[in-house]
Design a protein that fits this description.
Length: 334
């Protein structure tokens, strides 16, 4: 990333607090400036390029400097998702982490708008299978979602019967996914809005996790998944949805069937190759079309993760799982 973020807001206290948060996130690489008057913003932007302008709703900018501003976000009390509205709006009064994640995800999508995205009505579904769950495969799944989020709006959903602490998360609920599944099974008509209320954020990734008990996942049916995918396909909120499948059931089989891509990380010195062969046989037996064509196998080098502590999110970039993901992505298009 890198560049300049300008915050143009009459509330100096708000603007400074938001600036301080973004500056603390050195991994973002942006210089952050605050403006409370139109003239000072005009003077600066007359000779400099602003990558992201966060502007208070109701304020305006000179026409002469618009060409020097790449993307403008309106800091607003409401969101207008109507198809005729071309403004990029972001809720002003939410956590700085959530606001920044949404802004950077949208910005990355904007500057990479020449890159093709495809899938179900604009949303691409990717499933990552872990037939024998382990930290290294979970690290691959997080790495994959993280890398994709640099260009697209990503939602990561780990489905694990027995989840273990792995990533050090600022926002986390131990029951968010379980709570959401209640509404999923009851076919709530406002499913995506409810889901979004349970979502947490880390860097540029939105994620939905937290299981009260693994049986909550076992109870999810094929029809539940169909309803969920249909609702996701109609939502403009995400470009790519990445599921991490840590178990095998009719629900996860339906997710594989609905996915544009199925990735299977294979651990060194394991029986994963044998298990994948058996999985392909069973998928063919139950009528999942062309299983060998939708499944992509990825060799995963062994990494000795600590079993007694979590890791910082940025540590993923130094792992064997990250390197395996990058190697795979070199020949892949999302």
């Amino acid at each position: 990333m890198g560049g300049i973020i300008a915050i143009y807001d009459s509330d100096l206290t708000y603007a400074i607090r938001l600036m301080e948060y973004i500056k603390k996130r050195k991994d973002f690489g942006f210089e952050v400036l605050v403006f409370t008057e139109e003239k000072s913003l005009y003077d600066f932007a007359s000779s400099r390029i602003i990558d992201i302008l966060l502007m208070e709703d109701g304020l305006s900018i000179h026409k002469e400097i618009k060409d020097n501003i790449k993307v403008v976000f309106i800091l607003s009390d409401y969101l207008d998702r109507s198809p005729t509205n071309e403004e990029l709006r972001v809720l002003k009064y939410q956590s700085a982490q959530k606001l920044t994640t949404e802004v950077l995800s949208t910005y990355n999508k904007f500057i990479n708008k020449g890159e093709p995205t495809c899938g179900i009505k604009g949303s691409r579904i990717v499933s990552i299978i872990s037939l024998t769950p382990e930290r290294n495969k979970l690290a691959f799944a997080w790495s994959y979602a993280y890398h994709i989020s640099e260009q697209s709006k990503v939602l990561f959903i780990p489905l694990e019967l027995l989840p273990i602490p792995f990533i050090d998360m600022n926002e986390y609920s131990k029951s968010s996914l379980s709570d959401f599944l209640y509404y999923l099974k009851n076919k709530d008509p406002d499913l995506i809005s409810i889901m979004n209320s349970y979502i947490s954020y880390i860097d540029t990734i939105a994620y939905l996790s937290g299981i009260s008990i693994g049986l909550d996942l076992i109870s999810v049916t094929r029809e539940d998944i169909k309803g969920w995918i249909e609702a996701l396909s109609l939502s403009p909120d995400y470009d790519v949805i990445v599921f991490y499948l840590g178990f095998y059931s009719e629900a996860t089989v339906e997710l594989m069937n609905q996915s544009d891509k199925v990735l299977v990380p294979i651990a060194e010195q394991s029986e994963d190759h044998v298990l994948i062969g058996e999985l392909e046989r069973q998928l063919k037996f139950i009528g999942v079309s062309k299983p060998s064509e939708i499944i992509c196998k990825i060799d995963l080098p062994r990494t000795n993760w600590s079993v007694d502590s979590t890791i910082k999110f940025q540590e993923l970039k130094y792992s064997g799982a990250w390197k395996a993901m990058i190697k795979h992505m070199e020949g892949d298009v999302i």
